[in-house]
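Please fill in the sequence for the structure shown.

STRUCTURE ENCODING:
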């Protein structure tokens, strides 16, 4: 039973934030009451909201005279554990009507010609987002889960994070996230992305939107982004695609109620045996209603014999009537509906029943059940719940769903007849195909969709989102290596009979430099490596991605072992030759990759190609940041296509794209060194980037692994930068040992020891 699923842990509270509270305010017996509105999001989230003693924050639907909410409204809402945000009429006009509905809505739906933008309105959008944030801060405590909904509130996550970093914050976008080519049109594009990245989780209906979001992060903010994770300000923001579901159980149950059956029968009589095509929408220009009506007209034109065999019912609930574009749309739809009925109607019968109004859920259920075909053809739609409701409301595996390919729902409902909603002739043809479809074929398509919609319901969506927010927040950088623990481990270090050190070079022992060739070790660093390498019973390895020649040139004189090219070559301390650890590696791909890299390098000033004995790397630290990141993304994608199936890995590192033979990594390189380690050996490893994680994962549990920097890591502790690591190593090298010791680090500079 679904309701038994635990949603949050003990003591966790859910604070929901949405533009509009899911509530109807009405007077009963002289007293104002707030009644919870059912449906959609409210259904999925009301249980965790109620059960965790949480709060729902939003606009109650009535403008306020001033900054304060009417006390009567406030009290009625609080009874439902809701908190109203007071918005004046002017604020609502700027924030909601202008920015949300006339700028963000059309832009995110690819209607760039409808976009209006004024800086003053944006100021108000910001101010209203601040008001919502302040209301959250009044009730939310550290550890609470705050879940922010939709495009009206895209700045809230960052505002919350700044003021209360301990909150777990999630954000869900209900509309499409457009291609970065479209998104970049938004004047405040950077502010919005940063606003969203304040969250621990940013979620979308589909993987397409997630991909678009990632490319905007790269293009606009120059961030390096993994497939599901964005490292940002020392945190990791989790990205997720999880389409909203419906309360399928409720739709199924509603269909069986006697009052719904009655409506169904009334509709059946009215249809007089005609087949029914159904359209249900908010009257919005994104929903493609005019093209759909034209498609229906085309069907009747192509097949006049159908004029008295089919009828279309289109219900369109009025929406955003204050926006001019919506008024024009209404005129257009009215005119088209009139045309169709005058062209194809007969006395006493109109083929198109168009109703400009909302209908009750019961009436909708009857309509869904009677419709032989549901025609859902938005030009662009974040998801589209109507398609899912149609599938869930049916009691048998019959009926045909025609679904526009630019809806998010098309991603999940692959068995629908998918159409291009701009192709009027295509709509007509597909309608004919639907009307002619055999019952077997209908069932073949409908049954799996019904199962899927039933399983991936709104409760599953809520669980997945809340679970991801909680887990994402726990992905924190490890704590700093300091205090008592550090003193205790220093003692262990001193007492240890043997010590084994694995130290990465760039970004770990040495700060990153603009050009890779600039990262030459200075005297202080060489002195430190000498001091460590000369300690008794101490084996030091520098484990680097650099090629053998370079390591030899820079560190060849120090008494440390060298591991080059992420583990392709190894040279123990005191020896002069590197041994290849993978001599059989195939390198046939190199020529092609070299050519690709050189082409990119010639396009991106400041970037360069590094040829290592095994791998090839393209570095772009010195290039224009956004151009570099953009080219890197294209390059990675291109390489993955070109090299598919070859035994190589494409790595995108810190301002570098690298191709190297597969199976070679720092972890496997140190494995055999770890295998012969004696009990009681103090193992210490330090590294800063993704390639060091391979090494961290191979260490024994007793080892001390240090991440240099701040991001989640397999290392249990971190130090902020290379300087802090050098300082620690110098201190420990100098620590009086129980073993015969040599004095320290002549080279470690004074400020490092201070
Ligand atoms: P909407 O654009 O409102 O939602 P949609 O997903 O179709 O679009 O949801 C509409 C809801 O309103 C449905 O539950 C439907 O039953 C109801 N409805 C529509 N017409 C009606 C009518 N005439 N009478 C009564 N009820 C009617 C936004 C995004 C969508 C996304 C949802 C949820 O634009 O892409 O699917 O949020 O995330």
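FILLED IN BY: designer on duty
SEQUENCE:
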């Amino acid at each position: 039973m679904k309701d038994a699923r635990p949603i949050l842990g003990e003591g966790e509270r859910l604070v929901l934030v949405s533009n509009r509270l899911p509530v109807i305010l009405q007077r009963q017996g002289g007293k104002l009451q707030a009644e919870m509105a059912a449906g959609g999001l409210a259904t999925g989230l009301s249980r965790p909201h109620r059960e965790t003693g949480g709060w729902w924050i939003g606009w109650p639907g009535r403008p306020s005279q001033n900054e304060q909410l009417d006390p009567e409204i406030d009290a009625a809402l609080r009874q439902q554990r809701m908190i109203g945000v007071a918005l004046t009429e002017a604020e609502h006009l700027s924030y909601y009507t202008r920015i949300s509905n006339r700028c963000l809505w059309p832009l995110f739906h690819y209607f760039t010609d409808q976009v209006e933008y004024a800086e003053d309105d944006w100021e108000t959008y910001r101010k209203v987002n601040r008001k919502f944030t302040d209301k959250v801060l009044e009730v939310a405590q550290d550890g609470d889960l705050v879940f922010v909904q939709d495009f009206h509130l895209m700045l809230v996550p960052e505002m919350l994070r700044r003021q209360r970093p301990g909150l777990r914050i999630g954000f869900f976008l209900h509309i499409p996230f457009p291609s970065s080519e479209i998104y970049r049109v938004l004047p405040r594009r950077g502010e919005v992305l940063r606003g969203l990245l304040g969250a621990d989780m940013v979620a979308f209906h589909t993987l397409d939107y997630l991909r678009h979001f990632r490319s905007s992060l790269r293009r606009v903010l120059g961030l390096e982004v993994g497939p599901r994770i964005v490292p940002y300000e020392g945190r990791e923001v989790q990205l997720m695609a999880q389409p909203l579901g419906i309360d399928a159980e409720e739709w199924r149950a509603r269909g069986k109620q006697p009052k719904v059956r009655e409506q169904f029968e009334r509709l059946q009589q009215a249809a007089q045996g005609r087949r029914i095509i159904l359209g249900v929408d908010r009257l919005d220009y994104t929903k493609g209603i005019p093209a759909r009506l034209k498609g229906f007209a085309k069907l009747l034109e192509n097949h006049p014999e159908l004029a008295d065999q089919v009828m279309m019912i289109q219900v369109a609930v009025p929406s955003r009537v204050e926006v001019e574009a919506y008024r024009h749309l209404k005129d257009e739809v009215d005119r088209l509906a009139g045309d169709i009925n005058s062209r194809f109607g007969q006395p006493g019968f109109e083929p198109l029943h168009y109703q400009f109004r909302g209908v009750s859920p019961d009436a909708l259920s009857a309509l869904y059940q009677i419709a032989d075909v549901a025609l859902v053809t938005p030009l662009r739609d974040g998801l589209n719940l109507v398609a899912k409701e149609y599938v869930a409301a049916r009691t048998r595996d019959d009926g045909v769903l025609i679904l526009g390919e630019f809806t998010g729902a098309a991603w999940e409902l692959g068995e629908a007849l998918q159409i291009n909603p701009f192709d009027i002739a295509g709509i007509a043809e597909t309608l004919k195909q639907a009307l002619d479809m055999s019952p077997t074929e209908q069932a073949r398509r409908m049954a799996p969709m019904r199962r899927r919609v039933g399983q991936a319901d709104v409760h599953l969506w809520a669980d997945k989102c809340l679970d991801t927010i909680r887990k994402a927040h726990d992905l924190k950088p490890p704590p700093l290596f300091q205090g008592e623990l550090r003193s205790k481990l220093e003692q262990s270090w001193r007492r240890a009979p043997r010590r084994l050190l694995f130290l990465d070079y760039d970004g770990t022992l040495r700060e990153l430099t603009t050009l890779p060739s600039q990262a030459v070790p200075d005297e202080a660093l060489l002195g430190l490596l000498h001091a460590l390498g000369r300690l008794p019973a101490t084996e030091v390895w520098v484990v680097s991605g650099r090629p053998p020649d370079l390591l030899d040139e820079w560190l060849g004189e120090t008494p440390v072992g060298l591991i080059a090219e992420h583990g392709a070559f190894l040279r123990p301390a005191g020896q002069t030759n590197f041994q290849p650890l993978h001599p059989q590696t195939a390198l046939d791909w190199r020529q092609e990759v070299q050519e690709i890299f050189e082409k990119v390098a010639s396009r991106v000033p400041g970037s360069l190609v590094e040829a290592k004995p095994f791998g090839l790397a393209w570095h772009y630290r010195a290039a224009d940041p956004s151009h570099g990141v953009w080219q890197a993304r294209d390059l990675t994608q291109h390489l993955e296509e070109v090299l598919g199936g070859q035994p190589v890995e494409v790595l995108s590192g810190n301002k570098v794209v690298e191709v190297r033979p597969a199976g070679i990594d720092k972890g496997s390189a140190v494995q055999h060194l770890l295998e012969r380690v004696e009990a009681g050996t103090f193992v210490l490893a330090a590294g800063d980037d993704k390639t060091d994680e391979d090494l961290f994962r191979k260490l024994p549990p007793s080892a001390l692994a240090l991440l240099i920097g701040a991001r989640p890591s397999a290392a249990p502790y971190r130090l902020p930068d290379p300087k802090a690591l050098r300082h620690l190593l110098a201190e420990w090298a100098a620590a009086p040992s129980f073993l015969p010791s040599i004095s320290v680090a002549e080279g470690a500079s004074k400020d490092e020891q201070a």
